[in-house]
Design a protein that fits this description.
Chain lengths: ~350, ~350
């Protein structure tokens, strides 16, 4: 099934035929204290508000409003969260929505599952998480429950500094992928990320490749553990990993635990990530020996009258909150690229009051 | 509106006319370490499993199954949770369901809001909760959100040892209500409860009546704080407090914070609580100067072939998980008393495999 607005890689046309019915969007939410390192992430309205990013994303996607902090005035120059794209798609289609707390500082005013109870520590400690196995076990049950109510899953994430932890686990498993993960910042702070990860690996005493659980425990984040458990529990339905280099890292982690041939799994992201010259989504999958279909939603905000949305065309943000994957799934259901772009423009115009 | 199977008190016929439309059931879940005091509660399959009572109730109501612990074999003598009645009503009607964690040890495998993060301490410490105001503030937002999607609310609870903490806050506010709260045990352990509460009051240094916030902080539980916030936030819609003496205590607490005349609020419970000679629901409301309508669902399991259900007729359990209130609301919508009783019998027969 080939649809305008989607690019297909690695046999994704065949996978796309499995995407039928209503489908479910799952947002994995988490925090890592790594996000407090200055300059590492653009997520969040301000550094102090970074921990609010996941709950506000969930509230925006589910209700169209920000409930936890009250209404935040936005200027037309403010670059919006990719959750705005996800919200637009949700209003255009009929996805069931599920929200999963994998380890958050602040709970969203949205009903959610809870598979972890603490944010990840700064990975420079080398001891990011002590509850990886517990998160996976609980997330398995949640995945099975959601799958029992779903034709297929689209799994997105909201965790600030997640591309840094993604780099962390890839290096911990022995891959040499410096410069391969994406960033929400226009200028990808690769050297900062690398130094953060290397400090963490050193503190963790990792000098040889380690297994995926140890990698997450040392320099990962709770979202990864939640994703792995969720996928293992939802094995019986097709799964779209909705994200860029973070979800590629999840795929690599997962492939070290189970044989992906037993799963119906693909990765879908935005064209902005796929085209990102500072990162290499396909390189991660190839070096990680992960052979799964990939699709991109080739959205463009070039027609926007707002600086905040035009910024996406200049390399800001790129992906997050499952924006690319849910857009792909919606387009496979018949929603057009232009409908998504126009709805984003409309919702954003309301947010900035213009 | 007078319906067979419901008893009306204090002008409840008029309140019942306001109950129109689909309506929403809200389950407030919480834990208090007070439940670990031997002999104080019958909730839970065994003392070690007492903390599992609220998540398992939520899972039973929402999915008809127990997910967190896997399938638990029940003998036909096992006295089932009142959540079984709530589940039966949910299958017979069209209530929206919402679950709210006010402070739990274990999260349910059911999507839920989260307004508190820690269980209450044993009230014998005199310092049961330190986050009462935070719970209320967050619960207000959740209440407003739920009310915006609801014609009316039915608010139930699942917290083991909740009748002891109810007694605690009533005494702390200066009421002399020993022997007025109900119990899940056939023989109400009034003297144990009183001694637990008195120890807590002494440790808290309470010798004069205190305000409701201080009462909850000293000898209350997180469910109470969640209920108060939820009601304050949902002020614009009719509210049924679905419970017995615990919800009566919530009504007394609330009446010390706001004028209840500004609310459309009633209490609804089971006939088993109303007829309980060891407690006095109406006495609590009267002594507490709370003038609200009361309804009871006059269910009977006398026709059951199972010992576990017949036990309800002998004074076991009586109420919980909003069973009485949701039954009243369903009967106001046209579900009959017999349909509820027969559905409980059917679900229970499946649970015990007969």
């Amino acid at each position: 099934m080939v649809v305008d607005g989607i690019s297909y890689y690695n046999g994704a046309e065949k996978f796309a035929e499995k995407i039928k019915g209503r489908g479910s969007f799952v947002l994995l939410m988490g925090n890592t204290d790594t996000a407090f390192i200055p300059g590492i992430t653009a997520a969040g309205i301000s550094p102090e508000l970074t921990p609010y990013t996941p709950p506000l994303d969930a509230e925006l996607v589910e209700t169209g409003r920000i409930l936890t902090l009250g209404d935040i005035p936005l200027t037309p120059e403010a670059i919006p969260t990719p959750g705005l794209i996800t919200r637009a798609v949700v209003t255009l289609s009929d996805f069931r929505r599920y929200y999963v707390d994998t380890g958050m500082s602040i709970s969203p005013i949205v009903p959610h599952y809870r598979v972890g109870s603490v944010p990840g520590k700064d990975i420079r400690t080398g001891h990011a998480l002590s509850n990886v196995k517990e998160i996976i076990e609980t997330a398995k049950k949640v995945g099975a429950q959601i799958a029992s109510e779903s034709e297929y899953l689209v799994i997105g994430e909201s965790i600030a500094a997640g591309t840094t932890t993604a780099l962390g686990v890839l290096l911990a498993m022995g891959h040499t992928m410096d410069g391969f993960t994406s960033s929400s910042l226009q200028v990808n702070p690769q050297s900062l990320k690398s130094s953060v990860v290397l400090e963490g690996l050193k503190k963790a005493g990792i000098t040889q490749p380690v297994d995926p659980i140890r990698a997450i425990e040392s320099v990962g984040d709770p979202m990864m553990a939640g994703a792995i458990g969720l996928i293992l529990g939802a094995k019986n339905v097709p799964i779209i990993l909705a994200g860029g280099t973070q979800m590629a890292a999840v795929a690599v982690l997962l492939s070290r635990i189970v044989d992906l041939k037993g799963f119906n799994i693909a990765l879908a992201t935005t064209g902005w990530v796929a085209k990102d010259s500072s990162a290499n989504l396909f390189g991660i999958l190839k070096q990680g020996n992960v052979d799964i279909p990939v699709m991109t939603a080739d959205l463009s905000f070039a027609r926007s009258k707002f600086e905040g949305l035009l910024a996406y065309e200049k390399g800001h943000v790129k992906e997050g909150v499952g924006a690319g994957g849910i857009s792909v799934a919606a387009m496979l259901k018949g929603v057009t690229k232009e409908q998504i772009e126009d709805t984003v423009e409309f919702i954003y115009s309301k947010m900035v009051g213009q």
